[in-house]
Design the sequence.
């Protein structure tokens, strides 16, 4: 009975938020209320952490402001205020919390890019790259003759 009650109170998933991982560079589009009108504000940055589960699931995004000061913002994943989240790039990280990036600037604060798609569901077929399928077969060149053998 109590499980059913908890499920009825729980917020619905926001379909505009994909699977997020620490190290992803994202662009979060948030609805902002200003007086009687509503606008969408974009917040671009790197995900430092993805926390908790259920109704309280959230993620923290960090970006560097124009004056060199770091700004962090935490978003609830199920919030209806999030218009959409676009993952622009994934990074290869070995930690769940990237708080060590707070003290790093310049090249020391960069993360190595990850090229495989970890957002793929288990059991889903991997799509082949289009460029590989369109490549022409490589023709082998005939072996070059030595100039000394050609004179004889």
Sequence:
């Amino acid at each position: 009975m109590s499980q059913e009650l908890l499920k009825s109170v729980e917020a619905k998933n926001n379909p505009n938020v994909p699977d997020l991982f620490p190290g992803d560079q994202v662009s979060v589009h948030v609805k902002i209320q200003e007086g009687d009108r509503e606008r969408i504000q974009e917040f671009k940055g790197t995900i430092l952490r993805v926390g908790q589960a259920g109704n309280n699931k959230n993620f923290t995004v960090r970006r560097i402001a124009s004056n060199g000061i770091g700004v962090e913002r935490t978003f609830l994943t199920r919030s209806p205020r999030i218009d959409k989240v676009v993952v622009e790039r994934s990074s290869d990280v070995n930690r769940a919390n990237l708080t060590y990036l707070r003290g790093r600037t310049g090249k020391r604060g960069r993360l190595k890019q990850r090229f495989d798609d970890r957002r793929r569901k288990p059991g889903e077929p991997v799509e082949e790259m289009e460029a590989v399928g369109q490549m022409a077969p490589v023709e082998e060149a005939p072996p070059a003759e030595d100039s000394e053998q050609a004179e004889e």
Summary: The helical segments are 2-9, 130-134, 147-151.
